[in-house]
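User: Just a sanity check before I run the rest of the batch. Below are the structure tokens for the first item. I only need the designed sequence back.
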């Protein structure tokens, strides 16, 4: 029997279900973990108000016959737990302090720690993550390569609302008006990728995309950039080939991220 693990923080939406569907194709049994991981939230972030909808999540997963694994904080982090130290030293060799890591110090140390614990507890053959969290999936790919070579990593494309907004558990925080403003993120990425298909300067295309986000009322840009998928560092003007565009912004008080894969010609 093979096991596919789909780690989530619950408040499930269609994007999570895409991961479950892919997991079903790849293994005999699917385990969906639901755990709002305290170690990946900063002190001033939304850990306390993060949506917790366990019963609705169970109902959404029911038709898939997936096993729901919703451990307590004590189960995941038992007393005397010491994985942090080793994760921290490994994380310091990886791009964990740029982009998401710059605004959310220690975020990735928390993500990598919980992922290691879930791998230990569930012992999966396959793990399924979303491309939406591009830097997270980059780091988990490195972690698996170096520490869990027996596990297959499967990455699923971002599921979007019909108007392009990337689905996210945090979208439920948005007012109707903020939701409209939030569309600027996916539009900026798509327009930038279209511009880069013709001979445009990469720097100019990025600057334009940033300006389009900054022009939107109620939206405060954190970062928008294009990174080399091999090392998650910003591309330079000479870079050609497949690359990953990433954006993060606050829409009102809600922090949203988005990403697309593009090609620089
Ligand atoms: P979260 O519960 O937000 O921590 O996400 C759990 C998993 O679902 C992660 O691997 C995410 O990348 C993935 N995910 C979140 N939103 C989407 C989406 N819109 N489309 C596909 N995967 C997603």
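Assistant: Here's the designed sequence for the first item:
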């Amino acid at each position: 029997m093979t096991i596919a693990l789909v780690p989530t923080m619950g408040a499930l939406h269609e994007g999570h279900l895409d991961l479950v569907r892919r997991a079903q194709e790849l293994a005999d049994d699917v385990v969906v973990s639901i755990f709002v991981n305290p170690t990946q939230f900063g002190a001033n972030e939304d850990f306390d108000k993060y949506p917790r909808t366990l019963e609705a999540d169970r109902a959404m997963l029911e038709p898939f016959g997936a096993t729901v694994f919703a451990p307590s904080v004590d189960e995941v982090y038992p007393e005397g737990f010491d994985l942090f130290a080793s994760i921290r030293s490994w994380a310091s060799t990886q791009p964990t302090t740029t982009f998401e890591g710059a605004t959310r110090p220690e975020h990735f140390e928390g993500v990598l720690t919980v992922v290691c614990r879930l791998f230990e507890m569930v012992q999966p053959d396959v793990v399924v993550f979303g491309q939406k969290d591009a830097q997270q999936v980059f780091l988990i790919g490195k972690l698996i390569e170096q520490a869990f070579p027996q596990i297959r990593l499967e990455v699923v494309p971002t599921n979007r609302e019909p108007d392009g907004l990337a689905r996210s558990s945090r979208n439920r925080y948005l007012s109707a008006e903020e939701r409209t403003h939030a569309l600027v993120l996916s539009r900026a990425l798509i327009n930038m990728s279209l511009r880069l298909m013709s001979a445009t300067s990469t720097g100019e295309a990025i600057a334009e995309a940033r300006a389009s986000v900054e022009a939107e009322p109620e939206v405060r840009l954190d970062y928008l950039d294009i990174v080399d998928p091999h090392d998650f560092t910003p591309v330079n003007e000479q870079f050609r080939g497949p690359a990953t565009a990433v954006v993060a912004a606050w829409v009102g008080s809600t922090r949203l991220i988005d990403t697309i894969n593009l090609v620089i010609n």
